Recover the amino acids of this structure.
């Protein structure tokens, strides 16, 4: 979703960052072993985010919010949906512009700067860490995401390979006969079905096509 904004995805990185395996900078073991390396990785991601802007895909989803009750479930840790104007956003894998306490996971702080340092402490005097769900950690928002997907009347799956679990498993909770639009320039891992519309385009192009169709269909039905 955010690749067109210049956000490098793990897929783009090929699983590596400056010759380090991603799991060496994005896991609890990595944090215990070399917290400074983990800090450096996320500081670079955060610095990049401060320099990026929402792309057309983000803006089109925000525009859909004027016509539908749009609930966004995202694997992305950026705030580009928020900056585009969307408000109902559930971040499955955490948020890059937040830090949280290593002593109390409920102590979460917004960051208006890109650098988090060793020696930055929470109110309880414990080191702050990136507010990110690392490889090997539970995804606390999955229960809420499951409830949202079960209630959906239309589902858009944008810019994902559908290979990262448990997030990819959300498709199993979609109600029968719900229209599903899968937008991705690659070949996401899903079983073709009658109710799945696969649009092999990047997020902005695919969203333009889908947004036009959905808004047009709604206007037609409202005129009956």
């Amino acid at each position: 979703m955010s690749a067109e904004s210049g956000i490098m995805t793990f897929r783009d990185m090929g699983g590596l960052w400056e010759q380090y395996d991603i799991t060496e900078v994005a896991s609890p073991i990595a944090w215990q072993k070399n917290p400074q390396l983990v800090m450096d990785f996320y500081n670079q991601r955060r610095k990049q985010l401060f320099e990026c802007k929402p792309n057309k895909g983000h803006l089109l989803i925000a525009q859909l919010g004027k016509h539908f009750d749009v609930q966004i479930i995202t694997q992305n840790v950026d705030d580009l949906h928020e900056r585009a104007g969307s408000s109902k956003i559930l971040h499955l894998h955490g948020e890059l512009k937040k830090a949280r306490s290593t002593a109390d996971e409920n102590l979460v702080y917004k960051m208006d700067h890109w650098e988090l340092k060793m020696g930055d402490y929470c109110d309880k005097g414990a080191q702050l860490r990136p507010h990110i769900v690392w490889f090997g950690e539970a995804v606390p928002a999955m229960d809420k995401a499951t409830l949202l997907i079960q209630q959906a009347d239309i589902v858009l799956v944008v810019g994902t390979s559908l290979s990262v679990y448990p997030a990819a498993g959300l498709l199993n909770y979609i109600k029968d006969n719900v229209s599903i639009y899968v937008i991705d320039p690659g070949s996401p891992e899903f079983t073709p079905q009658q109710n799945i519309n696969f649009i092999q385009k990047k997020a902005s192009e695919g969203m333009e096509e889908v947004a036009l169709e959905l808004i047009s269909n709604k206007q037609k039905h409202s005129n009956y």
Remarks:
- The chain has a mean pLDDT of 91.
- The helical segments are 10-13, 28-33, 35-50, 56-64, 80-84, 142-151, 203-222.
- Residues 39 and 116 are 7 Å apart (CA to CA).
- The longest strand covers residues 94-101.
